[in-house]
UniProtKB/TrEMBL annotation, chains A, B:
Protein name (database record): Cysteine desulfurase/sulfurtransferase TusA family protein
Family to which the UniProt record says this protein belongs: Belongs to the class-V pyridoxal-phosphate-dependent aminotransferase family. NifS/IscS subfamily.
Coiled-coil residues: none
PROSITE patterns: UPF0033
Length: 478, 478
């Protein structure tokens, strides 16, 4: 039963399991204590820090272990912003960061590190900060110089992921770090998706990562703060982990973190090449075997194990279920999942199709046979979902061309229905004619222009529509 | 090799180990995902929450898992204070809370939930809150009615531990919770030391605990927020754990938490009675076999497995080392440890001797033989440390009584030297005469009055002394 969602969480590496077990027996005591059990725990913690720091590319005293990657990001950003309040309150992030970074940015923007006031009657603590979201290209990558251009005299911190979690695109982190250094602004790198594949290059100031993403245990994040970087931990004081990560140290998991990072790094070059070839195969085959599909993300500058594609006229959640029934565990950044009704901010920032989105991220050890099995199963899974939704086959329209503008009322219908209804009428529209799609689904704002791009048709623009929705106008050009 | 520091961290319970191992294989995936591995993880998480909530005495949807007890306390206090900002900024805590609570109180007092400005140039975010520290009696217990008396119209939150971590004294939590409820103020109970022994009684509003304290795994804390309690999570948003505990769920450890809590609860009545008898034995024997010792903490209303005593004329750190060499791992709240130069705030609030402090906390399964071995080893260990420090034997002074006031200059000398020097001269002082001890060690402020109490002599008071220290005056009354 192939599991293809390593980017969410990788199965525990055998070395991690082994190290965790050993450290459960040796590392359960308080490392601050003077007796033998405490000293033993301290030795394990120190050794794990040495190993991990070397693999991160920092000094042991620059690295602390947090309870998760999310906490590393939250606490790293809060600590860096707090330490540089005198420099200013401006924060720069890319528009395709992980939600951990974006939620930190929202909190900073709303109330200076405090979440916005809610219906509970809480009020903001002080004036909000200012956030700049750096755009990306259609491949999901920030442009060279984009960070330099975004920095201001009052910029306290910039954040950039090493590689995107939804589409696998690698960011120009080393270049951005140089740009930030030149401006005297610290750069925090969210390396959650890439650290198992290698260290992050460039003069970054802070780095966050998460062990379970590379096959380490849950419950451990990394936060590196390079010497010379101002840092003032937010929240109540705590003496552990250099005052930067409150709470009793989870030493068994930390030991497993170090051991597993060393193990995956030892395998990274060979396994990366092997998985890259499998992903290349997916990138090539999916558009050949599935109609109306868009493979997204930078085709070259990308993580070796991850590929994302979107399927027109497909409900992403239904497709995930179909693939699950076929035995394949994959994920989605699509708008069409139960957990959220808004489209993926990553796909939105890239301006690509979000509907029917599938992310395949191969864990180490994935076999070619498993990938071939997926490629065999996918076309039927997509076709099944499309059939259920009544998606159009191309050229199926038989009615006479309508005169004037064709209006498609998709109000109250969820993604991907608005695009399906658009496609259904489009063949009846004369070249030069327009279609106005009325929709109140947020995904339509992304997916109708993306459909035009894929079909080579003109997206004219949007206008408010009667009934509370938005009208999206498309002109047939061919 | 007996380990007697369960109150710091208990060795992993065999059931916890077993559950952790099983859940490593089944619970590593993201429980928010729709595929089978995610559904399996979700089932494990839900089941663990059900089990744990029942043992805590709350509903499953009132309980979230945090990365540690410290984080449960920090985030619980911050969230409760934030939600009740309109009610006011006043916080009530007992003076013997764990540092996790006190550091939260300090952060609130300094800067409204933000740590005080440091040398890094950071500035406070907004006006500080107001904190009331409720005193305790000589047994370490808050008085009935003390919380009711401390509450004000602008009190946002009150916090009280279920039992003290240093001396084992149980607090009147149910009574305090009633007092708070009557005033419409939520009470947060830090149940870290007691939850393995039983649920916390009374109408508390929030409860925090830590799994590794009862033999569960490291990396898991509990935060319960009862329905009807206002709560506004501080910090960046995160959708997991009801928005109250950011970060990827550590499901294997959470499963082990539930299983181990159930296991220790099943053994709690019998094991508690057995350990209580062993602690009674220590409480009785130590004063018989070790001269100049004070057993501290409430003798009856206490945790079953924990006893603390302080030894006059003893350097606590040296005593811990001596006991470690003799094969016994015990802890200390003493001022005389390497990690801090200030006396234990708990012993200070109780007004008892802090020097030569030893905390014995027996893990489940401790045998009577191990305790007898400790009782045999202790007198020599204490005598050895005293001999090295040149502590006085009673009645050893041979010189003639000095006329007028005797001045002991202990400036620059660390605890327990000032008390040793006092004792050395005291037998030469005539009844009615006084000794002025000059000291710049903070512990002297606690230990000289405590010495007077133990010796039945009069502590007159303190005054500033030349040379930057303080003069502590003692009158010989017998």
């Amino acid at each position: 039963m192939p599991y293809f969602d390593a980017a969410s969480s990788a199965p525990l590496h055998p070395i991690a399991r082994q190290a965790l077990l050993a450290a459960l027996d040796e590392g359960w005591a308080d490392p601050a204590r003077l007796y033998r059990e405490g000293r033993r725990a301290r030795l394990l913690l120190d050794a794990a820090r040495e190993t991990t720091a070397e693999l991160v590319g920092c000094r042991p005293d620059e690295l602390v272990f947090t309870p998760s990657g999310t906490r590393a990001v939250h606490d790293g950003i809060a600590g860096a912003l707090k330490a540089r309040r005198r420099a200013g309150r401006h924060l720069v992030v890319s528009s395709v960061e992980h939600s951990a970074v974006l939620h930190s940015a929202e909190a900073h923007g709303a109330a200076g590190g405090d979440r916005a006031a809610g219906s509970d009657g809480a009020v903001a603590g002080d004036a909000g900060g200012d956030v700049t979201y750096v755009p990306v290209d259609r491949g999901g990558r920030v442009a060279p110089g984009a960070y330099a251009a975004a920095l201001r005299a009052d910029t306290a911190l910039a954040c950039l992921q090493s590689a995107n979690h939804e589409v696998g695109t690698e960011q120009p982190v080393a270049e951005a770090a140089e740009e930030c250094r030149a401006a005297g602004v610290p750069l925090l790198v969210d390396a959650a998706q890439s650290l198992g594949w290698g260290p992050v290059a460039g003069p970054w100031s802070l780095l966050a990562a998460s062990a379970h993403k590379w096959g380490g245990p849950p419950g451990v994040g990394l936060l590196a703060v390079r010497k010379g970087t101002r840092f003032a931990p937010a929240g109540p004081a705590d003496e552990r982990e250099a005052g930067r990560a409150p709470g009793f140290e989870n030493i068994p998991a930390i030991v497993a973190t170090a051991a597993s990072l060393r193990a995956v790094r030892a395998e990274a070059a060979a396994e990366g090449a092997r998985l890259r070839a499998l992903v290349d195969r997916i990138r090539a085959r999916v558009p050949e075997t599935v109609p109306d599909v868009e493979v997204v993300g930078d085709p070259e500058r990308r993580l070796p194990h991850l590929v994302t594609f979107s399927c027109l006229y497909v409900d992403g959640e239904a497709l995930l279920h179909a693939l699950d029934r076929a035995g394949f565990s994959v994920s989605s950044g699509s708008s069409c999942t139960s957990s959220t009704l808004t489209p993926s901010h990553v796909l939105g920032a890239m301006g690509v199709l979000s509907e029917g989105n599938v992310r395949v991220s191969l864990p180490p050890g994935t076999s070619a046979d498993e990938v071939e099995g997926f490629l065999r199963a996918l076309p039927d899974a997509v076709a099944g979902v499309r059939a259920e939704l009544g998606a159009p086959a191309r050229g199926a329209a038989e009615e006479a061309p309508a005169a004037g503008e064709t209006v498609v009322d998709a109000l109250g219908r969820r993604c991907p229905v608005p695009v399906i209804e658009l496609a259904k009428v489009f063949d009846r529209v004369p070249v030069g004619g327009t279609v106005l799609v009325l929709s109140d689904d947020e995904a339509a704002r992304l997916d109708i222009p993306a459909w035009c791009e894929m079909r080579g048709q003109e997206y004219v623009g949007e206008e408010p529509a009667a009934g509370g929705g938005t009208g999206y106008r498309v002109r047939r050009t061919s």
